[in-house]
């Protein structure tokens, strides 16, 4: 009885996983999307029927064979940098380091007027690490308080800011699906951009809610974190990876990079529920200038300031007004 129950549970789990995998990552393009998942579920039901009518061995063997076949196909699914990408992720950031100078290629600096009306600009910019003076965490919310997109912005003495964002590389026609992110539906990219692009498009075009937090960290740690982003972005150009909703998303990548700089960083549920990252940073003592996470949130919300700023050259200064830990200039 215990063995039969275990077999039934294994078939049900395999049926669910296989249906999702075939739905979100179909092996053949241009086919009706529901055919393969429906066929897979029908085969699973046939195996369960065999168990119900006393044909346990044939049912178990056929289910196992089908799972092996599906796993063989799944292991052959490989990430690629050669797909019909959406324009905003059409290029990948990569960089080279020469002493204190870092040259970043394909820094996105789009001028957004709407989600479909924009001027596409990809630029090469040079950053002097000896002038690196600030690290800010930007969180952008679009609905649920527990989920936000996390970006890290580095500020330099010459007035430049560069934002690193772990992005889903969506193909033309793709729609975002958190479940699809578990099933290799998207590739992963680490994208560098200007604040007038990646922060502004979220508040002013996509109607998201933006918050900024000044992160206090030693200069050598900030420098190492910046270089880790450059290295990760460049490596993804050479070796593409899949995005994963749980293990390779915007927050977990930040944690993996920061852990290289500060060994022993504690794991925490807020690394998965990215909307609560400020509480995690507060616990680590990485925020200064306010006496509670709630106070940081109130003062760090820059949505209204962003929407009121029309001139690009004033954007970075205006969104930092009143942010705890930011020295007024």
Automatic annotation (TrEMBL):
Q: Which parts pass through the membrane?
A: 6-23, 35-53, 59-77
Q: What is the lineage of its organism?
A: Bacteria, Pseudomonadati, Pseudomonadota, Betaproteobacteria, Burkholderiales
Annotated Lnb N-terminal periplasmic domain ranges read 119-275
Q: Which UniProt keywords apply?
A: Membrane, Transmembrane, Transmembrane helix
Q: What is this protein called?
A: Lnb N-terminal periplasmic domain-containing protein
